[in-house]
Specification:
Blueprint (H helix, E strand, L loop, with lengths): L1 H58 L4 H15 L5 H4 L10 H9 L8 E6 L2 E4 L2 H11 L3 E3 L2 E4 L1 H9 L3 E5 L2 E3 L1 H11 L3 H13 L3 E4 L7 E4 L18 E7 L6 H13 L3 E7 L5 E5 L6
Parallel strand pairs: 1-5, 9-10
Antiparallel strand pairs: 1-2, 2-4, 3-4, 5-6, 7-8, 8-9, 10-11
């Protein structure tokens, strides 16, 4: 009896499981069908909306944007680019009024003026008075004497290298190399003197000859401009510079004389040493008293 009851229970459990599985499968099938139907409906609705929007766009008349575009095209048609021939006609003779000529001359670049210098022994002279004054005012180059400008060899070579001066020996024009060789023959100290002079000028300093002080150069502070006539307080010598080569030898009395002279005029004494590579090193010697 017990065995029969157990078999009945097992068969009933199996039947209930099979029924539950059938119901689950039927539910999943119905769910899949509903999801497919909803997806198809959504696609159709979106396609219909797109078609409606496209139809409305085609049916709408031209808006203000189209009108604005037409205005822009009209403006572009009015402002046409001109060719060079139309702006500057070659065959037509243009008669300009004096005011137009003055306005046109504002944009014309004046050619760089080159001055003429005549070489006489160890000086270069600019005999034209106006040219000589212009060269002096350019950067205090030279010395005005008897309506002519007297340039040293160093000053003349710097101006020649800057394309400001043409140097003539008689009727022959000397280039920079020829004039440098001539200057070296006239003055044995010229190679290192010119190196120091050009280096100081490149720093924007005003350099004048220091012959009356027994040195090569006297140097003024940056921004000082010497005027013709009496000197002002600002136009005072700041440094006295003596150019020497690297292998130069001197005695102590020579050093002391140079330093004493610099102190007498309230300036600093600088020794400019030029090495074989053309570099300049400055040394200051100070006199101290106990």
């Amino acid at each position: 009896m017990k065995k029969k009851t157990e078999t009945k229970k097992a068969t009933s459990k199996r039947k209930t499981k099979i029924i539950e599985e059938k119901e689950f499968l039927e539910d999943t099938k119905t769910k899949k069908k509903t999801t497919k139907k909803t997806a198809v409906k959504a696609k159709k609705e979106s396609i219909d909306k797109v078609k409606k929007v496209s139809k409305e766009k085609t049916k709408k008349p031209k808006t203000d944007k189209v009108k604005k575009k037409s205005k822009k095209t009209e403006e572009i048609e009015e402002i046409k680019p001109l060719s060079c021939e139309e702006i500057f006609p070659e065959n037509e003779e243009v008669q300009e009024t004096p005011s137009e000529e003055s306005e046109a001359n504002k944009f014309k670049r004046e050619p760089k003026k080159k001055y003429k210098g005549t070489l006489l022994e160890n000086k270069v002279y600019i005999f034209n008075k106006t040219d000589g004054e212009e060269v002096y005012d350019y950067g205090c180059f030279g010395k005005m004497k008897d309506d002519k400008n007297e340039l040293s060899l160093e000053e003349a070579l710097v101006l020649a290298k800057r394309n400001k001066l043409k140097i003539y020996e008689g009727k022959k024009e000397l280039n920079v190399e020829e004039f440098y060789e001539y200057a070296c023959l006239q003055d044995k100290e010229f190679p290192w003197k010119f190196t120091v002079y050009e280096e100081l000028r490149g720093r924007g300093l005003l350099v004048r000859t220091g012959f009356k002080f027994g040195t090569h150069f006297r140097v003024y502070a940056r921004g000082v401009k010497l005027k013709r006539g009496p000197k002002s307080v600002k136009e005072h010598t700041r440094w006295i510079v003596h150019a020497i080569p690297e292998n130069y030898t001197c005695s102590f009395p020579e050093l002391s004389r140079a330093v004493r002279l610099a102190h007498n005029i309230r300036a600093k004494m600088l020794w400019a040493v030029v090495d074989d590579e053309g570099d300049v090193t400055y040394y200051e010697i100070i006199r101290k008293t106990p």
